[in-house]
């Protein structure tokens, strides 16, 4: 299978640079995958497409302000992009420009010159960094970090992004990119959904920077995804499993949620373990599950998602769910109707 078969032309003006004024006023494209029928509505109407007994699964991972700017002793600007926490004040990070940084160097952050130590390289483009020992770790990140907007948003982050590049149900910090299908929800919509007899189940998959990295190989099957950490309350997984056994519909909010549910259903969770957190038993581990056409879905019956980059793993996932030709036809239709694409763009419900 060739990656070029999942390409399409998108006018640049359709790449959303800002969120809509209200989360729920984004447009919603509804695709019936059996017949390929399409309709357009507003996201505020999404609850109407759910039914009593459905299980709506959301990713409650919270985005951290992962992008930190500082300067070397000589004044050169350095960007430190936190990727994952490995210990207290110890992080794996991407550095830009990485060629100008050496192990043992100090990056001075903020007007008071807080010292961030580059401890050493841990792999291609990745470095271990130590955050300032004299400051609270979370306070330092919150105060000096910037919202990690995707590279196709051609502007600096602003204060509003702190709220809007975050779902209303975000709870567990750890993502460096938002699970963007969830950005459309409001508290009012969630309440409407519950009133309709739908069970809302949270899971956690911390989204890594790999979500924006292009797939390296033209042959789809030769690509691999970076592992991402997942955490799911055991009782919540049992709710999903019980719904599957009884024939109730599992509706997944986003590709990250889809990969989490499918990884658990397929037994594709590395280092899986059960552990207690605040008196509850959770399943934790990591998954690198790569879903592309030919994949047999084991749990998910419907997917709410945004409109994705060409040649991306996210586009491959929705193509696996609805069919390549159907998805590309739908994207052409959306482009013709000037839908907004990518993270701050409009939504699509595939049922």
Q: Can you put this structure into words, describing what you see?
A:
With 351 residues, the protein is of the alpha+beta class. It folds into two domains: 3-63 and 161-350, QueA-like (3-Layer(aba) Sandwich), CATH 3.40.1780.10; 67-146, Thrombin, subunit H, CATH 2.40.10.240. 19% of the residues lie in helices and 31% in strands. The chain has seven helices and 19 strands. A ten-stranded mixed beta sheet has the order 2-1-19-18-15-3-13-14-17-16. A seven-stranded antiparallel beta sheet has the order 8-9-10-7-6-5-11. α6 (313-322) crosses α7. It is globular. The two termini are 25 Å apart. The model has no long low-confidence stretch (mean pLDDT 96).
Essential attributes:
351 residues; alpha+beta; Thrombin, subunit H; ten-stranded mixed sheet; 7 helices; 19% helix; 31% strand
In short:
By secondary structure, the chain is of the alpha+beta class. The chain has helices at 137-144, 161-164, 187-195, 234-245, 255-266, 313-322, 324-336, and strands at 27-32, 37-42, 55-59, 61-63, 67-71, 77-87, 90-96, 106-109, 114-123, 126-130, 145-146, 172-175, 199-205, 228-233, 250-253, 270-277, 280-287, 302-306, 347-350. A hairpin with a 5-residue loop joins strand 5 and strand 6 (77-87).
